[in-house]
């Protein structure tokens, strides 16, 4: 189990699941269904509505950015006091909350994550490019408190 620090007190994951999703829109629907079952299996269905919305938005954004292998990785971590979901994103650009006008058909995803989650952010990192080199990217994450 992974440990993160909460002040000076170590907090251990209760459960962790890592998934890779093919970069197609159909994967988002499947990912939501599997996340719903995973939450139920850990008796934390109270996270369901907010987690499904935020996860769908982050995964939808991430699959639009091609990865070398055509997959987007995610990590679901359950702690005693919260749920944290991370989505791998191959863009080096920082995510930005936008407030599009009423006529725009997209651009509201991070606004929803910002409004619904208890916390969210990103961490820059590098990924193997499949040719022996590295690509810049990030993990975009959100947390819901229990």
TrEMBL record:
Keywords: ATP-binding, Kinase, Nucleotide-binding, Serine/threonine-protein kinase, Transferase. Gene3D superfamilies: Histidine kinase-like ATPase, C-terminal domain. It comes from the Bacteria. InterPro entries: Anti-sigma-factor_SerPK, HATPase_C_sf, HATPase_dom. Pfam families: HATPase_c_2 (PF13581). The keyword Nucleotide-binding applies. This is ATP-binding protein. SUPFAM superfamilies: ATPase domain of HSP90 chaperone/DNA topoisomerase II/histidine kinase. Residues 24-122 form the Histidine kinase/HSP90-like ATPase domain. The keyword ATP-binding applies. GO terms for molecular function: ATP binding.
